[in-house]
Design a protein that fits this description.
The complex is a heterotetramer, with two copies of chain A (about 80 residues), one copy of chain B (about 750 residues) and one copy of chain C (about 240 residues).
Chain A: E1 2-9, H1 16-27, E2 33-46, H2 51-66, E3 72-79
Antiparallel strand pairs in A: 1-2, 1-3
Chain B: H1 5-10, H2 15-25, H3 31-40, H4 43-46, H5 51-54, E1 64-66, E2 73-76, E3 81-89, H6 91-96, H7 98-114, E4 119-129, H8 135-155, E5 159-166, E6 175-185, E7 200-205, H9 225-229, H10 239-252, E8 258-263, H11 268-280, E9 283-287, H12 300-305, E10 311-316, H13 321-330, E11 335-342, E12 346-351, E13 354-360, H14 361-366, H15 380-385, H16 397-406, H17 414-417, E14 428-430, E15 438-443, E16 450-458, H18 461-466, H19 468-484, E17 489-498, H20 505-525, E18 529-535, E19 539-540, E20 543-544, E21 548-557, E22 574-578, H21 589-595, H22 607-622, E23 628-631, H23 636-648, E24 652-656, H24 662-667, E25 674-678, H25 683-693, E26 697-703, E27 707-712, E28 715-721, H26 722-736
Parallel strand pairs in B: 4-5, 9-12, 17-18, 24-27
Antiparallel strand pairs in B: 1-2, 2-3, 3-6, 4-6, 7-10, 7-11, 8-10, 9-11, 12-13, 14-15, 15-16, 16-21, 17-21, 19-20, 22-25, 22-26, 23-25, 24-26, 27-28
Helix pairs in contact in B: 7-8, 7-10, 8-10, 10-13, 16-26, 19-20, 19-22, 22-25, 23-26
Chain C: E1 2-8, H1 15-25, E2 31-37, E3 48-51, H2 73-81, E4 86-89, H3 91-98, E5 105-107, E6 115-123, E7 139-146, E8 150-152, H4 156-161, E9 165-170, E10 189-193, E11 199-202, H5 222-233
Parallel strand pairs in C: 1-2, 1-3, 3-4, 4-11
Antiparallel strand pairs in C: 5-8, 6-7, 6-9, 9-10, 10-11
Classes of the chains: A alpha+beta (about 80), B alpha+beta (about 750), C alpha/beta (about 240).
The structure holds adenosine-5'-diphosphate and magnesium ion.
Magnesium ion binds near residues 436, 482, 631 and 633 of chain B.
């Protein structure tokens, strides 16, 4: 099974990278850009076919390693193989 | 929100402090005022426990231009230039979030330095962690190093020195102390004073978010859970923003537009505004509606207490604000006039047409003072009374040497400093690891002279833990020795005093004794303390860290090309020891390693006895007589000898007289001792110099071959090839933390 | 006489270093230089350009990505298309790749760590303004300091075939090994040139290797600048 | 409108960060992890209500700045405000 984890900075946490990209885009003529926030997407190829178990295991991986709970949140999406 | 004593206590004020606040104001404070007072009167901002003791430190000297009390200290280095430096702790934030905590620590200290008009030219980092084998420690080490490098590398200042050690006592409370050195023109130093009634106050840099707003209030009723979620307790550093701020500030400082400037650090806008007004004896009137914000709907309380990074508060000459704004526009920085200087002596804050705060600046700036009882811990005399002799079960000397070289406190820290750009700004003469101090070139303004500044940073916390007074004196002596070993004259020191909970008399005793020791040694050695920082309450689960007065000392090298490293040079050089031949195992790395604790009586620092050795080494380097110099510290003579051999990739044959125990001779430690090497032609001069100043010199061998051989009396006690030693020393750190 | 223009982007931090190397250290050899602000639209009379190291725009998103869109870049591209010598150092190399003036891309070091260390590179490939006067095969000692220096290209064979790899990480003895490679670059590539051979990018810092008093003591970095001088002067010189 | 851009390394490009995460996960006991790849997610807050126009503009931003076609691919997802 493929699992896609999206890791984002918690709201309120400064995202200097997103800020710089937003400013660059607006300098490039994309005045409609109101804000940018940048996160990570972690694609995991999992040897597991049970959806519930896959989700539970990946959630645990996120808490332990993939996301930094102090400043980040994560969301999990199960994709078919 | 109703303000009462209960709310004040929740803000960390005592009943007495709340009463004096009400009395000082002549009324009950507003909510914003309570927040402001609570941060200004916190230990962190007010130094209420340590101030009277800090006042005893020597802070004047011929070279001192700006002493403690400003954003950083400034010391004259000739040619119309000053060295500006300071050290600061970021322990707690780094434990919560190592990357950002360490990064913002570096950012904060660099701002303190360029606020003064100095261009930062060097960073140093002093780190303490728990046991290296713990997973938590490993995570913290990687994160902290990543954070320091990530910030300094991008900001573009070389990290040239530092210190890393591990000890159980730091497991739940790591230390991350960052130091920054800058150079400014003596006649263009900028201070944090809001002078000149009618002058506009400018806010420059990052927009304000709800970062790091004082913790006590998080649980208070005013905020819904939603609002709390919006208040991150981690501040994220933006080195790019800081680089823009640096360049813009330095550009503005070439004009006469700027009157005063202060970065917004701990306690944010509140402390900058209050301190600037208090220093100038003026007042400030600010309108928060004009503050550039990152998020909508922020309250006055939040705007006043936010600790968003990379922000500056400035006072500019009236009518010249457009010139200042043009510079910030060039550098794409947000800037706004948010108020003006008054003569009222009060900090007045308005928002949405309402006066949110109106308080005397002096009331907030002076802060409370507390006299904390201190008491000498029972049992310390017994520990000092123990015999620090040979240790049963310790390995034989060669094995002990290899083990010491590979332990992470002594092993090469290249794993760390390879992650730091230590060469940016084309000034680094001696890089981290190459000598006892990092050295960075300073060009005279006319470009004709190349002098240099040397930086050593660290703390022998084993000594301080064993005996805070003597240990602190030894710390100063070791810093001077580290500078001497590159040929630098000490010109000033900054400190970061990391201690446990001062409300415990035994911890307070450590602090008092340590400060007394630092002061005595600095006075004896003629080194002024020009800036510093105190970090208290370093404890977890009720147990305190080892007392750790971190020192960063700066030295002047008259001719950059003369600075000397610690590696032996070519074959056939003479090797000698300056200072006492034998050392003391009390408090030594050897004792720590093999007896698993420290005990006994430290060798006391004695200026009459130790001062001359420090002078002689520097003099010999200035005269160009030495090929290498290395102070004998952690691990004693054998470790120093091995380090010089490894760095030079050359062997050495050493013969020592049988004096005292072999362990004391090889691994004992003590003040003002050096391993030097030199070409045979210099031997006469060196002998004469040492004799003239009454310094012990013991010629003990020569360089050559590919192994280290040490004889004591007739017996060879250490014999091993340099490659084996090098492998232990080079790889020890990475192996200890489970990284290659 | 050779006048270098050093382009200063927001976040450049080796701009002063580069200018100092050419305009101060190498002034006696006949060089000078000036800083060019990224918001400018013209270069003003310069003979050669340096895009210096640093962290333009914080290296956010991708190293060099945002600087590649700076106003000055149009003029840089014109200069390069006209055959003008352009040297990108470290972040400057990354910017040149992002701007499409050089092929390939520079991605995160294989070690995932920033690496600041002394390295050696071998001079090879087709002649460029910054290498033609250096004897082929000469090994230069310099330092690297970067977190994203791993060079990737989808057709290294073609690049090699066209002689466009001009600096390659080697050991002090000249061996192309993994140990010599500080970032995991394909084929130990440290620097490349464009099809026309006038634009060069490399990750190591020649401007930091111009004075014996500094760091590792190497002065090998001078050779790149002296080579450019020789080209502009039209002297069939050999340096190093 | 909110637009979510996902940027991934092209399949042929080595992803040492993904590898390191995969190894750490397996050391932590997640033996079912067969592979990890790490990409970026760029959330753009756009002042644009027309979906087609939003998509076209963001595609252009990606080509010009957000993704580097030499090493990366991108995909665009329009989310409601
Ligand atoms: N965290 C660090 N950052 C940079 N350099 C460091 C760091 N830790 C140690 N070093 C460098 O490694 C060398 C050895 O450090 P240390 O053993 O603490 O020296 P000393 O005992 O002479 O003070 C010094 O050059 C020191 O500056
Ligand atoms: Mg030392």
């Amino acid at each position: 099974m493929h699992v896609k984890v999206t890791v984002n900075l918690k709201p309120g946490i400064l995202d200097p990278q997103g800020q710089a990209v937003a400013e660059s885009l607006s300098r490039l003529g994309y005045g409609e850009v109101r804000g940018v926030r940048i996160g990570k997407v972690v694609d995991i190829d999992l040897d597991e076919s049970d959806r519930a178990r896959a989700r539970a295991r990946v959630a645990e991986m996120c808490e332990r390693l993939i996301a930094n709970g102090v400043i980040e949140t994560f969301s999990i999406e199960l994709l078919e193989a | 929100m109703k303000v009462d004593e209960k709310l004040a206590l929740a803000h960390g004020l005592t009943s007495g402090e709340y009463a004096s606040l009400c009395e000082g104001l002549g009324r009950v404070p507003t909510y914003a005022e309570l927040g402001m007072a609570s941060v200004m009167w916190s230990e962190h901002c007010s130094y209420k426990s340590s101030r009277p003791h800090l006042a005893t430190l020597p802070s004047d000297g011929e070279r001192v231009v700006v002493g403690p009390g400003e954003n950083a200290g400034a010391v004259d280095i000739g040619d119309g230039q000053v060295a500006v430096f300071k050290m600061e702790s970021h322990n707690h934030p780094s434990f919560i979030e190592p990357v950002q905590g360490a990064a913002t620590g570096v950012g904060g200290i660099c701002r303190d330095v360029f606020t003064m008009g100095a261009r930062p030219i060097a960073i140093a980092d002093c780190l303490r962690f728990g046991p290296p084998e713990s997973a938590r420690t490993r995570y913290l080490v990687s994160g902290v190093v990543n954070g320091i490098g990530g910030y300094g590398n991008s900001f573009g200042v070389p990290t040239i020195a530092g210190d890393v050690a591990f000890d159980e006592s730091y497991a739940g409370n790591i230390l991350v102390n960052a130091f920054c050195l800058g150079v400014a023109r003596r006649d263009r130093i900028f201070l944090g004073a809001a002078s000149g009634a009618g002058n506009p106050i400018l806010y420059v840099g990052a927009r304000t978010g709800r970062d790091g707003i004082h913790g006590a209030t998080m649980a208070s009723a005013e905020f819904s859970e939603d609002a709390e979620a919006k208040r991150p307790n981690v501040q994220v550093g933006d080195p790019f923003m800081e680089k823009l701020l640096l360049e813009a500030c330095l550009e503005l400082m070439t004009t006469d537009v700027l009157v005063g400037i202060q970065d917004m650090g701990a306690a944010g806008l509140t402390s900058s505004a209050v301190e600037m007004a208090a220093r100038a004896g003026s007042g400030v009137d600010m309108n928060l509606d004009r503050v550039p914000v990152r998020e909508a709907g922020m309250t006055a309380y939040e705007l006043l207490l936010s600790e968003s990074q990379e922000r500056m508060l400035m006072v500019v000459a009236r009518g010249r604000e457009e010139e200042a704004l043009a510079v910030f526009e060039k550098w794409d920085l947000a800037a706004a006039v948010i108020g003006e200087v008054t003569t009222s002596g009060r900090v007045v804050v308005r928002m949405g047409g309402v006066i949110e705060a109106d308080m005397p600046a002096a009331l907030l700036a002076d802060g409370p003072r507390v006299v904390r009882p201190s008491s000498r811990p029972a049992g310390i005399d017994a520990v000092h009374g123990e015999e620090a002799g040979a240790i049963g079960g310790a390995p034989e000397p060669t094995a002990a040497l290899i083990e010491l070289l590979s332990c992470p406190d002594i092993a090469s820290k290249a794993w760390v400093f390879r992650q730091y750009d230590h060469e940016v700004r084309h000034g680094t003469v001696i890089r981290p690891g190459e000598a006892d101090a990092g050295v960075v070139r300073v060009l005279s303004p006319d470009g004709t002279r190349e002098k240099a500044l040397a930086v050593t940073a660290g703390c022998p916390q084993r000594y301080v833990a064993l005996d805070p007074y003597e240990g602190s004196r030894l710390a100063v002596c070791e810093a001077v020795a580290n500078l001497a070993a590159v040929g630098a004259e000490p010109i000033g020191v900054t400190d970061c005093l990391n201690f446990g909970n001062p409300e415990k008399p035994e911890i307070m005793w450590q602090l008092v004794e340590s400060v007394r020791g630092l002061g005595d040694a600095c006075r004896a050695l003629g080194v002024p303390v020009v800036s510093g920082n105190v970090s208290l309450y370093n404890e977890s689960n009720g147990s305190s860290i080892a007392p750790t007065p971190m020192l960063a000392m700066v030295g002047l090298v008259a001719d950059a090309s003369r600075a000397t490293t610690l590696g032996f040079g070519a074959a056939g050089q003479v090797i000698a020891i300056i200072g006492a031949l034998s050392g003391n195992l009390a408090g030594s790395a050897y004792q720590q390693r093999f007896a698993r604790r420290n005990f006994g009586r430290l060798t006391a620092f004695d200026y009459a006895q130790h001062g001359p050795a420090l002078k002689v080494v520097r003099g010999l380097i200035e005269a160009g007589s030495l090929a290498s110099a290395h102070d004998i510290s952690d691990g004693g003579l054998a470790v120093a000898m091995a380090e010089s051999a490894i760095a030079g990739s050359i062997g050495a044959s050493i013969e020592l007289p049988a004096r005292g125990s072999a362990a004391e001779l090889l691994f004992g430690e003590g003040p003002a001792r050096f391993v030097i090497s030199f070409a045979p032609v210099h031997e006469q001069t060196i002998r004469a110099q040492c004799e003239r100043l009454g310094v012990d010199l013991y010629v003990c061998g020569h360089t050559g071959g590919s192994s280290l051989s040490i004889h004591v009396g007739d017996g060879e006690v250490i014999c091993t090839d340099i490659a084996t030693l090098a492998d232990g020393w080079r790889g020890g750190f990475g192996r200890a933390i489970g990284q290659s | 006489m050779l006048t270098f223009g050093v382009v200063r982007f927001p976040g450049s931090n080796c701009d002063d270093d580069a200018l100092y190397a050419v305009a101060k250290v190498l002034a006696p050899a006949g060089m000078t230089g000036k800083m060019i602000w990224h918001k400018e639209r013209t270069l003003g009379g310069v003979d050669a350009l340096i895009l210096p190291g640093g962290f333009s725009y914080g290296d956010y998103l991708r190293a060099g990505a945002m600087a590649a869109h700076s106003p000055i870049m149009a003029a840089v591209k014109d200069f390069a298309r006209g055959g003008g010598p352009v040297l990108g150092i470290c972040n400057g190399f990354q910017i040149l790749c992002e701007a499409g003036l050089l092929e390939g891309a520079l991605v995160r070091n294989a070690s995932l760590r920033f690496e600041c260390a002394d390295i050696w590179v071998r001079v090879e490939g087709r002649p460029t303004p910054f290498s033609h006067a250096i004897p082929a095969g000469r090994i230069l000692s310099m330092a690297v300091a970067h977190g994203a220096g791993r060079y990737v290209h989808d057709d290294v064979d073609r690049l090699e075939g066209e002689g466009r790899v001009v600096f390659r990480y080697v050991t002090a003895d000249g061996d192309v090994t993994e140990v010599a490679n500080p970032n995991g670059s394909q084929s130990n590539i440290a620097g490349v040139t464009n099809a026309a051979g006038n634009v060069v990018g490399l990750m190591p810092h020649p401007e930091r290797a111009c004075e014996a008093v500094l760091g590792g003591g190497s002065e090998d970095g001078r050779l790149l600048f002296l080579s450019a001088l020789a080209q502009v002067n039209g002297t069939p010189a050999r340096v190093g």
